[in-house]
UniProtKB/TrEMBL annotation:
Keywords: Cell membrane, Membrane, Transmembrane, Transmembrane helix. This is ComEC/Rec2-related protein domain-containing protein. It is a multi-pass membrane protein. The chain crosses the membrane at residues 7-23, 29-48, 201-231, 243-261, 332-352, 359-379, 385-404. Its main location: membrane. It comes from Clostridium estertheticum subsp. estertheticum. It is found in: Cell membrane. Residues 157-403 form the ComEC/Rec2-related protein domain. GO terms for cellular component: plasma membrane. It comes from the Bacteria.
Amino acid sequence: MILINNPIVGAFIAVIFLASMYFTIDKKFFYLVVCFFIIGVINYYSYFNINLPSDSKLKVRISDKSTYYCSARYNDKKINLKGNVFELSEGRSVWIKGNFKKEAVYEKGIVGTYTVKSYEICDEDIISKIESYRKGLHKRFSENLGKEKAALVMGVCFGDSGYIEKVQKEDFKKLGISHVISVSGLHMSIVYKVLETVIGYKIALLFSFGYMIFTGGQSSTIRAFIMIFILKIASKVYKKYDSLSSVSLAAIIILVFRPFYILDIGFMLSFLCVLGIIVFNKKIRKALYKLPSTLNESFSLSISSQIFSTPYAVVALKTFCLGSILSNLVLLPFYTVVVILGNMGLVCSAFYRLFNLINYGLFTVLMIIEFIQKVLVALLPEMLYFSYIESLVVFGLYLCYLGIKKGYMQFKYVPICIIFVLVFQSYKVFPEVSYISVNKNNVVLIQYKRTAIAVTTGNIKGNDLKVPVKIDRIFENYTGKSAISLSKRYTIKLICNRDKLEALVCFTQETNKKQKMELLKSGRDEITPFKDIVKLENDETYVPSGTIINKYIIIGNKVLKFSQGLEEIID
């Protein structure tokens, strides 16, 4: 990715990496590393280095569709669609004609944006029929269970979380069980185990592959299927199964076809969870030998799966759920029943009475889950929110612990340096502007030096802003146009358009006027002229209420957008 954007910096990092490998590992193994490195570079470059012909007909498949967003796949490459695409439906193949602009979004695997001038919907094929069947299945579950519970079944059993309300998703995040509403390795294992018991391993593998396709082929399900397949085939070809080799092969296969997954949070968490189980599960089971076998197995799986994934989740998501282990232990057995019953409902959907009987069981289990979740949400502490620096500090302390445990006592001095970092992080050397959404109210948070102010279109409290920042002042019910002068160089212009709040960074000409950041200036008093104006986009990405959607940092004459830890320079 760095090579594509800056060949000199990328080449420099590559040389350092390969040099460190050359002097620290066996030479034969080094040549193997070089081969993987070259394949990775070529694969990543070939995926993102693409130009689609303009004003030519292209056949694409709609992969994701919402009110504000539409993406499609062309030759297994993702593109954003703009223009008259409102009537297109997910899963359908479409002939489109328009103009292509190369705009890579690396963490989402998007190679560019295609502005559609005209389109022609193709006839239904197997994939679009599967998508239509999923929609019909959701409708049937809704008639029996109600919209809320049907949405949960579709998310838990078939990985379709689009029907789940944002409030429900926030409860899942607080409880640390978000993984249950996306089909994961756990789901695949449950489905395969039941199928193997009923119809044998050969047909079970075939049906599991179909289940993987039906649920959208997410990285976690592909990984689980590959590992199950290798486990079952190994004994048939007289080979010993090795879980570490199996998970490594699964990662290689997935990244060959979808190289952008290396930046995908779901991909990383899935593999880190499995890696933790492989390395630590047996050790923890031995340590907890006094517990009953069922509890021992649940505790060891839950703890070992979070050893590697939790530090990464803190850095990537900047949140930490204190009650995740308890929630997983209590709720996962019930969600396992939901997965089994939901898939039985899929198989028996054509049989009216049997389908209704299965739905009765689903309704009962979901009512129990709903009650338990309400109790846990009330009892468990609020989710902790970290700034980017604090999340790196947590990760740094974890590495220090590992270093000291391995006997490198010099690591004990690192926490002292980290304390200085924490003290200094409250002082913003460069201005920061962040978009936040609280109960459908737009909030713009502006931080510079030791001052932080929030401007909102509605009424909010300081507690509603779940960011690790002390807010000095909140301007509520904001309307009209105003400006905040940060310094002689920068002015933040705020424009209220109905309920939407828009922020612009204005690079001002030299002036002798001194402005105070905490004062909102009306449009008539703002500093003029501006030599450059940059609009800060407010993405429609879903995040928990009160947390940062997008963050922008102003350095010199550039505005840097921070998204999932990645930086994008806005001209």
